[in-house]
Automatic annotation (TrEMBL), chain A:
Stretches assigned to the ABC transmembrane type-1 domain: 95-294
Lineage top rank: taxon: Bacteria
A GO term from the CC aspect: plasma membrane
UniProt membrane topology term: Multi-pass membrane protein
GO biological process terms, semicolon-separated: transmembrane transport
Listed name of the protein: ABC transporter permease subunit
Ranges annotated as spanning the membrane: 12-30, 101-122, 134-162, 174-191, 233-255, 275-301
Cited CDD domains: TM_PBP2
SUPFAM superfamilies in the cross-refs: MetI-like
Family: Belongs to the binding-protein-dependent transport system permease family.
Entry-linked PANTHER family: INNER MEMBRANE ABC TRANSPORTER, OLIGOPEPTIDE TRANSPORT SYSTEM PERMEASE PROTEIN OPPB
Keywords: Cell membrane, Membrane, Transmembrane, Transmembrane helix, Transport
Automatic annotation (TrEMBL), chain B:
Membrane topology: Peripheral membrane protein
Alphabetized Gene3D superfamilies for the sequence: P-loop containing nucleotide triphosphate hydrolases
Molecular-function annotations in GO: ATP binding; ATP hydrolysis activity
Protein name according to UniProt: ABC transporter ATP-binding protein
Domain ABC transporter residue range list: 4-254
Location of this chain's protein in the cell: Cell inner membrane
Assigned keywords, A-Z: ATP-binding, Cell membrane, Membrane, Nucleotide-binding, Transport
Lineage: Bacteria, Pseudomonadati, Pseudomonadota, Alphaproteobacteria, Rhodobacterales
Length: 310, 331
């Protein structure tokens, strides 16, 4: 397992380097730059600025310096638009925020979605089942950009229970709404997938065998059915984990959490090359780490996958 | 001594509007240590019979009437707890495809030990020792290592040996084997069948062997029941059923055997197909395919009737016997 992790990590390095190179050139191809503005700077000052950020160098030299700094100093360079801050500072400030509510959102999704799906499957066509189906439909009609304002209207403006935004060091009152708004639609999907997966597993021949051996229904559910049931849930969650942490731009902006999504938007507006690049790299590394985690979870459950890793 | 006594067992499947009858009041007995074959075309109700005995029918199937007396207790009236205590313990079942009947995420050892511990107060270690003994009995090489392996690491034949070992774990009185070799490689089918036969013989276990293969039936079983469209239409000693079939359907099955066909000529299949449950014909369910069918066959269902040692459900056979009796009386 450890060896597998190591091999995967080595294999992904070239991918990440390619990604950096491509992003690097794409960014320079786009018209405009961080120092383009309505009123052009006097040429002397412009030259000065460009020199300060190394932008006067030929492209390949810029790229080389950039790569060198990342891999040898873990330094993503200075921000072009925010003076005195470098990309590392921006990530260090925003990323923990996004990671925190993203994590709780995932916990919310799994801790609620899986049990809901199990109950709905076991009580097929019962009230529970219908409530869950209704909830699934509800969450499809209310994606997070509709749900978030509704939640603020209800919990903040009407009932005054929760703060409508901000972060305040990540106190739970501030985490709760971003996490729930971000997770709800996934929660419904997880419940739905768990339900149909469990129903399918319960119809499998090996469950019939388990019954024929005289095992109790409870044992059959927890020992025989649960693990295989979770496999499709894990597959589904793999890209969702990434999205929860990277695609939460709306949540960051709406709830003013100060998360990384806000920095991304700001950087895009100001063409802050180095920040955009830094975030793109962060996201791709995250994607890799989370996918690896999901694959390892898969291997932990499915012995066939596990023996395939060796 | 009777081990199992089934009387008028009826099984139905709920459909959207009403229900269809999959088993139409079948009755049969199995004695202790007796090996009985159940044959018939696909869809005849063989598996459903096996499931019903284990009380394993799942929705939309249900037992609509009749008795299943097993060791003196009616399975249809057992509480869920009693059913669990019986399954895998007094009565065990072996299913068709060992690729899918063992749980892929549990080791062989886990799947054996849990079975033992569901029925007996044993420590894990004690259960493991019993599992080892059983694996040896079914000729599994290096059984110690197998216990920690997962099903996918073993061959099909090995897996079915393990399934047999699991069925034998608690020394049951009856094993229901539903096409235990059909899914296996042809080269090992005979080995597995021999093993099953040996195990039943040496442990005095009753066997209900469900199969398409009349050859296997004649090797393994003492008695045979022929099923058609949810009924038993002929039953008796296996030897007499194979050598002297009475019912036109059984005759058709035997004539269709490759051994009965001269090399080079075509197999003599019974023309037509078995009726579906929702479209059962009036009278004898076999009459649309029967060359001897009369108006009586088209109108009235023939009852299963005893003639000496065999039971047959056929008007034509009945008529023959009546005439025989008349001739004997006249002499
Ligand atoms: N869930 C179900 N709903 C409705 N009908 C069913 C269901 N399961 C089985 N049946 C019907 O019950 C009848 C008997 O099925 P069964 O599986 O016992 O046949 P079989 O004799 O074992 O055939 P095979 O040789 O193919 O295994 C078939 O006509 C089948 O269509
Ligand atoms: Mg069958």
């Amino acid at each position: 397992m450890l060896q597998y992790t190591f091999r995967r990590t080595l294999a992904v390095l070239p991918t990440i380097i390619c990604l950096i190179v491509i992003c690097f050139f794409l960014m320079r191809l786009a018209p405009g730059g961080p120092f383009t503005s309505e009123r052009p700077l006097p040429p002397a000052i412009m030259a000065n600025v460009l020199e300060r950020y190394g932008l006067d160098q030929p492209l390949h030299v810029q790229l080389w310096t950039y790569l060198k700094n990342i891999f040898f100093h873990f330094d993503f360079g200075p921000s072009f638009s925010q003076r005195d801050r470098d990309v590392n500072d921006i990530i260090a400030a925003g990323f923990p925020v996004t990671l925190t509510y993203g994590f709780w959102s995932a916990v919310f999704v799994l801790a609620l979605g899986i049990p809901l799906g199990i109950i709905a499957a076991l009580r097929q066509n019962s009230l529970w089942d219908y409530i869950m189906t209704g909830f699934a439909i509800f969450s499809q009609i209310f994606p997070n950009f509709v749900l978030a304002p509704l939640m603020v209207l209800t919990f903040t403006l009407a009932w005054g229970l929760l703060p409508g935004g901000g972060w305040n060091g990540g106190q739970w009152e501030y985490v709760i709404m971003p996490a729930v708004a971000l997770g709800t639609s996934y929660l419904a999907n997880v419940a739905r997938i768990t339900r149909s997966s469990l129903l399918e597993v319960l119809g499998a021949p090996y469950i019939r065998t388990a019954r024929a051996k005289g095992l109790a229904e409870r044992t059959i559910l927890w020992r025989h059915a649960l693990k295989p049931t979770l496999l499709p849930v894990i597959s589904y969650m793999s890209p969702v984990f990434v999205y929860m942490i990277t695609g939460s731009v709306f949540i960051d902006v709406f709830f003013s959490t100060g998360g990384i999504g806000q920095s991304f938007i700001d950087a895009a507006y100001t063409r802050d090359y180095s920040v955009i690049l830094g975030l793109a790299i962060l996201y791709s590394v995250l994607t890799f780490v989370l996918n690896l985690g999901v694959d390892l979870a898969y291997a932990a459950i499915d012995p066939k996958v596990r023996s395939g890793l060796k | 001594m009777t081990l199992l006594s089934v009387r008028d067992l009826t099984v139905k499947f709920k459909t959207r509007e009403s229900s269809v009858t999959a088993l139409d009041g079948i009755s049969f007995d199995i004695a202790r240590g007796e090996r009985v074959g159940v044959v018939g075309e696909s869809g005849a109700g063989k598996s459903i019979t096996g499931f019903a005995l284990m009380n394993l029918l799942s929705r939309p199937g249900y037992i609509d009437g009749g008795q299943i007396l097993f060791e003196g207790q009616d399975v249809t009236k057992m509480t869920p707890k009693q059913v669990r205590a019986m399954r895998g313990n007094r009565m065990a079942m072996i299913f068709q495809d060992p690729m899918v009947t063992l749980n892929p995420v549990l080791t062989i050892g886990q799947q054996m030990i849990e079975t033992l511990r569901a029925h007996r107060k044993l420590s894990k270690e004690e259960a493991r020792q019993i599992a080892l003994v059983k694996l040896k009995e079914v000729y599994i090489p290096s059984p110690e290592a197998r216990l920690d392996q997962y099903p996918h690491e073993l061959s099909g034949g090995m897996r079915q040996r393990i399934v047999i070992a699991i069925a034998l774990l608690l020394d049951p009185q009856l094993i229901i084997a539903d096409e235990p070799t059909t899914a296996l490689d042809v080269t090992i089918q005979a080995d597995i069948m021999d093993l099953l036969l040996e195990m039943c013989r040496s442990n005095m276990v009753g066997l209900m062997l469900i199969t398409h293969d009349l050859g296997v039936v004649s090797q393994v079983t003492e008695r045979t029941m022929v099923m058609y469209a949810g009924r038993i239409i002929e039953s008796g000693r296996t030897r007499s059923i194979i050598n002297d079939p009475q019912h036109p359907y059984t005759q058709g099955l035997i004539n269709a055997l490759p051994q009965q066909t001269p090399p080079g000529s075509r197999l003599k299949q019974i023309p037509g197909t078995m009726p579906t449950l929702s479209a059962m014909p009036q009278g004898c369910p076999f009459h649309p395919r029967c060359a001897l069918a009369t108006d009586e066959c088209r109108a009235v269902m023939p009852p299963l009737t005893q003639y000496g040692e065999v039971q047959v459900a056929c008007h034509e056979v009945q008529r023959l016997h009546r005439e025989l009796a008349k001739m004997e009386a006249a002499q």
